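Next comes this protein.

***
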Amino acid sequence: MRPDTEALLVIDVQNDFCPGGALAVPGGDDIVPGINALMQDFPVVVLSQDWHPAGHSSFASEHPGKDPYDMVEMPYGPQVLWPDHCIQGSHGAAFHPDLDTDRADLILRKGFRKTIDSYSAFFENDHRTPTGLEGYLRSRGVTSVTVAGLATDFCVNFSAVDAAKLGFAVEVRGDLSRAIDLNGSLAAARSGMREAGVILT
């Protein structure tokens, strides 16, 4: 078991991000056994869960004439428009059935505000509105986090970079994450994570 100062942050391993889901990440379900095994090593385990109300502003279906993966400008900055996904209470929003959710100390839901998306487990996409995760980890005495899950180039990336900016030591397990890779987004995410001081393994 690792020291009490280390936490595992498992990002959005949900049905809609796995094969057959509304926003499937290729090989998204392949990482589940490895994540389950890794959970046993950590004294603090947090699962994040994308949790959108129906009609969320990041859904392409809310923007007439726009298609999934188009870009739009929101009050908080540029936003990718997504297929409807991870709608509160739906099968798609549920964790992958093989994920060991019983091992989690905290399940943190994000993206529940209708007018703003939330990639990071620490902040909404305005980079200002906190989710409360930082306070939770600090109150547990955590100083370093290991991040795994879906997708490497979006929610894993944003969570890792925010954790580093907040002063946590951060490692991203590339072998236990999978990417969407939208127009070079994976290479850009890897570069940005390294620049932020994130260790990629």
User: Anything to note?
Assistant: The chain is about 20% helix and 20% strand. The longest strand covers residues 169-178.
